[in-house]
Amino acid sequence: MLSTMQDVPLTVTRILHHGMTIHGKSQVTTWTGEPEPHRRTFAEIGTRATQLANALRDELGVDGDQRVATLMWNNAEHVEAYLAIPSMGAVLHTLNLRLPPEQLAWIVNHADDKAVIVNGSLLPLLVPLLPHLPSIEHVVVAGPGDRSALAGITPRVLEYEELIAGRPTTFDWPELDERQAAAMCYTSGTTGDPKGVVYSHRSIYLHSMQVNMTESMGLTDKDTTLVVVPQFHVNAWGLPHATFMSGVNMLMPDRFLQPAPLADMIERERPTHAAAVPTIWQGLLAEVTANPRDLTSMANVTIGGAACPPSLMEAYDKLGVRLCHAWGMTETSPLGTMAHPPAGLSDEEQWPYRVTQGRFPAGVEARLVGPGGEHLPWDGESAGELEVRGPWIAAAYYGGSDGEHLRPEDKFSEDGWLKTGDVGVISTDGFLTLTDRAKDVIKSGGEWISSVELENALMAHPDVAEAAVVAVPDEKWGERPLATVVLKEGVTGTDYEALKAFLAESGIAKWQLPERWSVIPAVPKTSVGKFDKKVIRKQYAEGELDVTQL
Ligand code: AMP
């Protein structure tokens, strides 16, 4: 028997309408570096998004599922693009402005982007690429920045504000199938070509609802979220759509992502929530340690994208800021888990839960798979590769405009689950603890050593600012850990024996203790601010590191 319920498509268009009417007074505040930030209400954002849709259709000829790219910081105009482009049936393609130019060009060409909306301050990145981007017919420039580089370029150039000014404030929004493409995002791609994940209207709608649930970020119109995670990094973890759905105010840092302006904006605007990768929180901690600011408005902060060292969580606890650990991927929209401890526990009892990656919501099914393909129990001990499935999890990668979507065997199981490439354990009560990326695990004499466990233990040492541990070849054991450490400012001289003893004291088994050590000036980072261990492995292989062997 079929149900008797209405079959109403779950679309971004619905989120746009709901946010601009029911939550019309909520605001997007964009940092400008001027004495006053820029403020725009959801009602204004919605109206301008409608005008943008009219402009894209009438001026740029976007009338179907063409890809419209954005090369932008987090700001109000970028939110307008987030709402307008999918709602009109086109596909929003956010470009990662920190990628090497060749990779950026590859991605634009693969997605066959028709137009790009670019922030003026990013023109020096875009303009030299344009001769290699034949599909781009229009460049729409928004916000401050020198325009002189645009003289004589081939695509047509339009100013964002002029383009939308005076356009109709209504639009004949198409009836969309909820399974249609709404947005796309390429993985940061540590190996091989980047892979395009294409989100549907339905996946974005359901993911937005999950983000807003209390068991996830739990945001309402009483909140202001500081969206540090870039809008090109998995749709800013879904926040712009989720917040528009629930009327949550957004504080957007634009290009002011350095620790000092971030601390200033938190003190002044008093956001109640924020979302960013651990590197950002490390930088902010160093800043407020040197120049104290009041961060206490942030009762609830989401930290993810890479493992959060427990020492970082402890340091923020002392500042009155509670970090909540989350795990996800570009392929999972990204919300996979969040580490809210179960009810009824004391602070001390909560701690072992807070340092895990967290619990799965109902929309994310999980299983652990052992090396022989066997499914492992959730006993907190059996370690295997995490596989997931659910309505906001990718089933394939974009195959290009002429091709079929791709389902590589190493990324998708035969029965359609996503192979995450993350290795970990799940407790009997469903909390995930990741021990490593499959490719970062150190395989020493047939046993596995978790690089993340070593890093977390090292980063708890008072002299250590950051630590990255990688596998290096070893004649006797196959692989052994190499510990690279960044010392805190003002610390001179390193006693590796003392660091090793510190690891042993913190509970690391003797056979797992690294014998190779190196002090490095900074841990190399990927385009989204994660430790880039392949660079360290390469530096080691090419003899570029000054390594001490104990
Ligand atoms: P990306 O698609 O670039 O966001 O990268 C996703 C990957 O980041 C995951 O597969 C994990 O390896 C890693 N990651 C994300 N969140 C966490 C976390 N909380 N702890 C450890 N690794 C994480």
Key descriptive features of the protein:
550 residues; alpha/beta; Rossmann fold; Luciferase, domain 3; GMP Synthetase, Chain A, domain 3; 8-stranded mixed beta sheet; 7-stranded mixed beta sheet; globular; binds adenosine monophosphate
Secondary structure layout plus pairing:
Blueprint: H1 12-21, E1 27-30, E2 38-41, H2 42-58, E3 67-71, H3 76-87, E4 91-94, H4 101-111, E5 113-119, H5 123-126, E6 138-142, E7 156-159, H6 160-164, E8 181-186, E9 196-200, H7 201-212, E10 224-227, H8 234-237, H9 239-246, E11 249-252, H10 259-269, E12 273-276, H11 278-290, E13 300-304, H12 310-318, E14 323-328, E15 335-338, H13 347-354, E16 358-359, E17 365-369, E18 375-376, E19 384-389, E20 418-426, E21 431-437, E22 442-444, E23 447-449, H14 451-459, E24 464-474, E25 478-487, H15 496-505, E26 516-519, H16 533-541, E27 548-549
Parallel strand pairs: 1-11, 3-4, 3-5, 4-8, 5-6, 6-7, 10-11, 10-12, 12-13, 13-14, 25-26
Antiparallel strand pairs: 1-2, 8-9, 14-15, 16-21, 17-18, 17-19, 19-20, 20-21, 22-23, 24-25, 26-27
The protein binds adenosine monophosphate.
